[in-house]
Amino acid sequence: MFRFTYSIQGKRLFIKDMAYYLVPPDNKLASIVPSLSRLERGVGTSGCEQHLTNDRTHAESDDGKGTNQMEKSIKSSNPTVIPVAILENFHFTFLIRHPRSSIPSYYRCTIPPLDEATGFYNFMPSEAGYAELRRLFDYLRSLGEIGPHVAGQTEHKAICGKAAELAGKAQICVIDADDLLDKPNEVIKTFCESVGIKYDPAMLVWDSEEDLKHARQDFAKWNGFHEDALASSSLRPRQHVSHQNPYTIDYARLAFVAIFVFKTCSLEKPRTDLSCGKKKKVKSTHEEDAEWREKFGEDAANMIRETVDANIRDYEYLKQFAMKV
To answer: Which of 145, 161, 167, 176 is the most buried (most CB within 10 A)?
Structure first.
């Protein structure tokens, strides 16, 4: 589908999704989904059928000297349900958020009254998605699809042994939600530079009826998760005291998301937004637990704490690659 859009229309398709839906949980082995195991003539192909596997097409062969064995080993370790031949057509960027913010925010979307709007009636700790995002991130690094340079770092940081070979590849582009909220102009500008899109400050403003209509259509599938964005008109740095309930902030699923930008295309105006607020003060574990108990009850607070703690290591691993602005 994406290759077809690229070859026929010559545009870039922007896709926002969770790595959790591409990578089996609990470190389980992945197998290519049946719908992607074969690409028919004319659908993202060069005119012939391709039978796709977790590594490449069956047509790929060794040169007889064993020089491709390491490359094949890497590609055969694909942790996703999507063939490498399709993954290679994407320009990957990543959006993360600290578990202490994302987990209670997501939990709130699975209980009354929001569960009626979201359609999510059960909180599943396994859906946090940090481990899956890290597996996808590391796999793309091993393929050379991202890196070695890191977006937003003045001294480009080599992260693997093939820096010379990979110099022309896409930068590692990781955005932390807190950085985006504190410095939206700088972060979006750096993001655009990293993915090859012309930056326009108007990207941070969506105050027309046409913009709102487009946003409603885009967010219709995720009813209840983006209400603040739909009620807003721009994204500005948080710097003033906000009386808003922190759990109503639209980014409930922000840390769970991996963003994909198809290699040929431009982005439209971002549709995510947060109201202005005071820069976050990091709370102690005791303060967090007390707040969660008050809002959600003892059992829920314990489950939230366990889920947060289980995902901090993967978050902090990804955080080291976040752009600096």
So the answer is: 176
Q: What are 152-161's contacts with CB under 8 Å, separation 24+?
A: 152/190, 152/194, 152/322, 152/323, 152/324, 152/325, 153/323, 153/324, 154/324, 159/321
Q: What is the pLDDT along the chain (325 residues), one digit of tens a residue?
A: 333 334 456 678 888 889 999 999 989 999 998 888 765 544 444 444 455 556 544 334 444 454 455 455 555 689 999 999 999 989 999 999 999 999 999 999 999 999 999 999 999 999 999 999 999 999 999 999 999 999 988 554 444 444 444 455 799 999 999 999 999 999 999 999 999 989 999 999 999 999 888 888 888 888 888 888 888 899 999 874 444 444 444 443 333 223 333 332 333 333 334 444 556 677 899 999 999 999 999 999 999 999 999 999 999 999 999 999 9
Residues pairing with 51 in the sheet: 38
Pick left, alpha or beta for residue 210 (phi over 0 → left; psi -120 to 50 → alpha; otherwise beta): alpha
The alpha carbons of the chain give a radius of gyration, in whole angstroms, of 21
Model's pTM, two decimal places?
Answer: 0.77
Could you tell me the strand order of the sheet in which 90-96 lies?
Answer: 14-18, 257-262, 90-96, 174-176
| C-alpha 200, offset from chain centre | 22
Among residues 290, 312, 308, 279, which one has the least CA distance to residue 107? 308
